[in-house]
Amino acid sequence: METTIPFEEHMESIMHLEDMAEEVETPTDSVDMKRLRHNRSVLMAHLPIQVIELPKKPRVMEKTIPFEEQVESIVYVEDLEEDIATPTDPVDMRRLRHHTPALMAHLPIQANELPKKVKKLKANNNELFSLEYESIEPEQQFTWEISSLEMNKPKNRYVNVVAYDHSRVVLQTLKSIPGSDYINANFCDGYRKQNAYIATQGPLPDTYGDFWRMVWEQKSTTIVMLSKLVENERPKCDQYWPNRGSQTYGVIYVSISEVQELATYCIRTFNLERVGSAEKRQVTHFQFTAWPDHGVPSHPASFLMFIRRVRSMLDLISSDPIIVHCSAGVGRTGCFVVIDSMLERLKHETTVDIYGHVTCLRAQRNYMVQTEDQYIFTYNAVLEASTTGSTEVLPCNLYSHIQQLLHLPPSEKHTKMELEFQKLSKIRKNTSEFVSANLPVNKLKNRFVNILPYESTRVSLEQIGGMDGSDYINANYIDGYRHKRAYIATQGPLANTTADFWRMLWEQNCRIIVMLTKVTELEKEKCHQYWPDEKPQRHLYFTVVPVTEYNMPHYIMREFRITDTRNGQSRTIRQFHFMDWPEKSVPKSGERFIEFIGQVLKTKHQFGQEGPVTIHCCDGVGRTGVFIMLSIVLERMTYEGVIDIFQYVCILRTQRPGMVQTEEQYQFCYRATLEYVSSLEQ
């Protein structure tokens, strides 16, 4: 076919704005508003067709050129003259072939210039970022004839996210099944590798078989999924794999052999067989579950850690494409492809080319890196990766790594350890993240005016009728290594917040308290004694009764019975009070503290308690941050065999400000981890 469906005809099927994958600006033009109202009436009669958000300026071209000319315009290595100066990176080759004004105006950036570049782009409320993003244009024309065939339209999750003809993945045709060669998926280039990825939509029930057939035919061993099945109460992707056992999808038999669920992602291992074939294959499925329902992650640390985990488990010998999808297969998918490609580029070059790579991807699949926020996030992630580098360390190399961090060359003023800790101070959020904490009714509930809970992760108490601010407590949920909201980090209760503290424990089903400060240190109150010594105490409608107390060498374990007087329900709560943290500085040895952490986690596991562990010191960020950080790092080392203290402190600080508060505490984390590693070698 030499004609395509005009862009306007695609627009007639667009859903309500609130049904789109991301938010878009409401049109102000009267013609656009009339079209939008018309579209809504059309869609009510044509559900369940969906559409994903369009960029502010449509990138799909209304005019087309013959398919043969498109193929001629695509750059391949074999089409270039053999020359030692010929670039091997597809993006560089595209720049060589297409000297567009936009590409010439946005050249690759030296990695050491990236901080200055990003700061400039972010000035005046991202003014230059907006201009740069809006200028991205392949300046070529592409057809999507096969996507537009009537028999293939039901296979598209969103009516305006199509598969370009020249780069689409062509399936092997099944006998007597028209259109069986079609799937909404495109090959995309990576760093120094053509067709390194396949970008595709989240499979639909009617395309499960096509998806698994594509995995088999392309000999892919890795699938990356960047959405949850449901987000914001809307389906984003249908579950195309079995929860347990096995299931047949079309001609592919899929069985699940292993599942590893972590706080921010899940790894599944599938075994595949094709009907009529004796060959068996293994596929690893990575699902990132920490992308928020709206917008982008507040900090790239978790996403970078996810990408590195994917890379670490790839078969380095295999050249098969990585299959990447989110819901539409353009937004988050584009972010993954660009960031992963830039991380690979940084291993070999001193420049990054985010603009060029997005331009290249837009010539292979429409709308890649779909929104301006995603484009900015991509820059932030690459900036983070280029300035911090990979901070993962093998346990066997930890000692030498610490020595390097503490070494001070004669020509330098700061050690690498000091510089590493200083980078953490850049993780800040604006005042809008502390709305509840700054309300007049809540200000006296904060022990320190500068240590407040982020709104996005704060623990919200059940509102008490007639009591303004009764939902507030200075506490945040903190993710563990394997479980979301595994911990609650909070300040030492004040006299006026003790009832709120016990109410939080009850409402959040907390069975374990970890206390890392004495009630008084340096003749100052660090924490109000919120528990009874002998006689029961009453806090609102809860009674707290002391049961027993065990004095261990380095900590005290107390048991309490808490009862809700409204219904008579009771629970046992255990408090682990660490007594060996000095009033000044940090413990001389990390061994005792590591043993203490182990005892707490062992008790939680022993009693099968599902609620979060509540941890506090005085401010809920210093010693509290050290406890949580070490718990996570040591657990990850057990499962993955790597240590990354810097990145996990980054992640903690995106959930509660100032976690691991001082450089001395930061060094203690390294030292305690090293002591633990050394104990394993003995």
Automatic annotation (TrEMBL):
Domain annotation Tyrosine specific protein phosphatases: ranges: 301-376, 591-667
A single MF term (Gene Ontology): protein tyrosine phosphatase activity
Pfam families for the chain: Y_phosphatase
Domain Tyrosine-protein phosphatase: 129-385, 417-676
GO biological process: neuron development
Official protein name in the record: Uncharacterized protein
Organism: Oedothorax gibbosus
Lineage, highest ranks first: Eukaryota, Metazoa, Ecdysozoa, Arthropoda, Chelicerata
